[in-house]
Structures
1.
Amino acid sequence: MCKKNFKYILLSFSLCLSCVAAYADSLGLGASWSNSPYKGYGGQLEPLPQIDLDNGRFFIDDLSIGAYLLKTDKQEITLDISYLPQQFKPTDTNNAKLKKLDKRHPTAIAELGYSLNTSVGNLSASIGGDVLNNSNSVIMDVSYNIAFSKNNWTVLQSIGLGWANSNHNDYYYGISQQEAKRSDLPAYQANSSFTPYASVTGSYKITKHINGLAGIRIDKLTGDVKNSPMTEHSVIPSAFAGINYQF
């Protein structure tokens, strides 16, 4: 899908969020930082809206909007569309060879998710696909989460394993024959790969309505993503912090 259409989708998504913001359970704003795996790219700081709306049938969770196909005290099945911010801009790298590669765009993912809540934690699984035909990605994720609360603190610890198909990896980490001729990099076709990760997120209740949040996550790239000529780092840290108002 062309860049113009993608902008229209993002605009529509933003307008939708504005319309439902008045009914949100909480609203806030924060920032996220992540270290890019690409050579010469460095870290990236981005604004991160915090929107939580859940009426038992539909929900908005930050940059995801969806509906419940099943919702009980123990199990949930959801269908949602979320924004996948992964991208590559040749102008953002200081690597001379990577500057000659094509741009890789972010996309939107339609995702089917399942969650099982138990007395010893929460098990979640999801599968999703690119709906904009930017990357033709298929991605899957399985994670285990456990939360601890004490006084005004809540801490959520997670471990998980992601998987991305060859279309996804080749789009974001592959190098075509044409790009190889321009950049003097070897042509590279990336196959599917797994990405294990771990994260810790904490929230602190500052007042009755105001909460502070912060978290860190570590991803470990493997396989053809790790070995791509575009890749410099295989351990990818990211962090976020923010504040929200709970109605």
2.
Amino acid sequence: MAKSAKSSAPKKLRHGILGCGGIANAHAKALLQIPEYDLVAFCDVFRASAERYKAEYGKGQGEVFEDFHQMFEKMDLDVVTICLPPFAHADEVETAAKHGVHIFIEKPIALSVDKAQAMVDTVRKAKLKSQVGFMMRFQDGIERIKELLDAGRGPGVQFVGRYYCNSLHAPWWRMQDKSGGQMVEQIIHQFDLCRYLLGKPKHVFASTANLCHGEVENYTAEDVSGVVVRFQSGAVGVLTGTNCAIPGKWLAPWTFVAKGLMAEQSGGATQITHTDRPSPYVEEIRSEKNGMLAEQLDLLRAIREDGETRTPMLEGLESLRLVLGARDSAESGRPKDL
């Protein structure tokens, strides 16, 4: 029988990791800093990867699985962290929900709106807590901006985000049908921030190309993109990205403008210039916050308090809807109504 999502939580919550690849390392390190969690299960289609996680993050304790259906059936978990490549999503959310397991899931949550909507419906019906891995929402600078907006500053009028890197990444990443492309797999972080600060999008126009990797076998994703989003409020978002920039660096600066303030983030520091006064005042926010730890702690809080997370599954759906709209626009050469 499935556990109730509202049942009293044990002193320590039994946590499993599904997908023991690269990004899961950062989540596992964060989870080890949360004493309320016990890492008790590790699952990956490559058993050696799950065994390595058990040795490194479970200190040799816990169970290893190659089939997540068996993991959920046998382990009586409270929480699962899902770190699967976009193309690998199957029925793991539905299976977790069947067993009453709260869910952390990395972005993008799917490669289609229909699949993402099914995930949302499943979690809602089961009354589970969920968190999608948009860690940029937890930046101290973003939290301060939201605080100002909630206090009546604004409204927001523009967001400009960039995502620059230069890497071949994993073989699946280069294939659009498996990763969704750079906008869907990487720049979605900036799309999500744009939505978070400016509200509901109205339409989007995008242009993309593959200009630097035409000779790389099976590289079908775009490596340069430009996107303009018009929001229902009239605000405008501008998002650019490329995989032709500086090797070994992943840069994601952004600028946000609202009535009464302008904020700029680069290199871990956010400068907020308050422009609603005769002499503008600059507020500088520096932080070394671990975003992955912050989002996992937020999920734990929601479970303990029966509250809501900052980025529930529905937010994963809406940011995916926007970025897939941008991809559709780029393919058709026309604006996409949302």
3.
Amino acid sequence: MRWQLALLCALATATPASAVTMSFDFGNNARLTNLSGWNDVFHASGSPTDTLFVVVDENGNAVPGVTLVETDPFYIVGQPSQGGSESPSGAAAGFPVDATDDYYFGHTGAFGGGDDNPTGGFKLTGLDQNLAYDFTFFSSRTGVNDNRETAFSVTGANVGSGVIATSNNDSEVLSLNGITPDGNSEISIAVMAGPNNDNGNGFYYINLMQVSTAIPEPTTGLLLALAGGFAAFGRRRR
């Protein structure tokens, strides 16, 4: 019975590991989210976004090995404006206004000195292949009368996709959960106009992104081991 007692003691003392959340604010360098736990993503006029070689979690601690790399530039001719939500509510209520107000955007066809830009994208590298990641996106452009629906696709070893009704959005978010990294420990994110987008320039937007992962609780493995052990014990007694 010693091994059963050892397993029971370990089960009783085990504590769940905590989740890690990484928050990214995309947009104007005049409206950064200067809060601990947020990563600001912006570019100099005419230049793609610099790689974020240090990504911090919700506590302001660097997440080992993780970087954010822009792979498909958004509009970069000038700084994006600050036309997103200034009154986040509903599912977006917990986000800071500095993150919901500005954005990265792209367009179909030439616009404002920029060439055709039907998609924008980036990737997270250095992720843990043993974990699944949950993505939350917020997309908002206020003061408009057309449909600027924005579509998101997240690709690792599996794929998730969805849309946000961006026009005058204060509350809607998009959650794409359970995405696992590919063989290179990467997950790619693509942003584009949604199928219902009827804007003449096909404008699409990303204001912010949160990425979270729940590390498996040690108690799960212990429960399985305990069940298997008792089953084996029962077979021996029979």
4.
Amino acid sequence: MYISFIIPAFNEEQLIEQCLRSVTDAVAANQSYGYAHEIIVVDNNSTDATAHLAKRAGARVVFEPINHIARARTAGADAAKGEWLIFMDADCLMNAGLVGDMFELIKQGRHVGAGSTVYMPDQPWWAEVVLKLWTLLSVQLGWAAGALMVCNAVAFKEVGGFDLTLYAAEEIEWSQKLKQYGRERKLKFTILNNHPLETSSRKTRLYSGWEITRQFFYLVLSPLGSLRNKKKLPMWYDGRR
């Protein structure tokens, strides 16, 4: 079995090396599965040293000139050689337990894909409440968090990949398509929760309460209008790091 880890990255020079190291270490801890793997970093038109640092760390780097998360993930999938794709954000740290859970799921052959619960260290109380609410929805509804998405490569292509009209939340639409694909073939889609993925809480540090509230209301009052308009998603696309 060959696994492709796909990591989109825009100006992630501060975090990309530790992210890649976490993946390498977690895979090494699960070498008993005998799976070969590659790590692809999609440089999403960075203006810093992201691509250089990723290459130095041993990743294969591909370039996506349009700053758009769904396009970056798609570019990685197009370049991938793996039979299974694992999409992971650059501000996350992988752990050996989660890689073991993913590899076991792949080995069993009863799933089309999966997501994972996440945790964010050192975040304020209100962000912890929001994360707990998201975790409940994710597990109950089978919505993968964008921080980690796992799927069979053939299924990814057959469902049409990610919706490129969306600038955020494409992981929810993708989850729905994969679940339907799986039901038709008696395959499962699950949210792994034994070993949550660590993801950065930097948005709660970089954005004020007012900025976060304004972003929330944009999404609530006009969800599709906001998700299809890059200018209404500054927390995803203003480049603040």
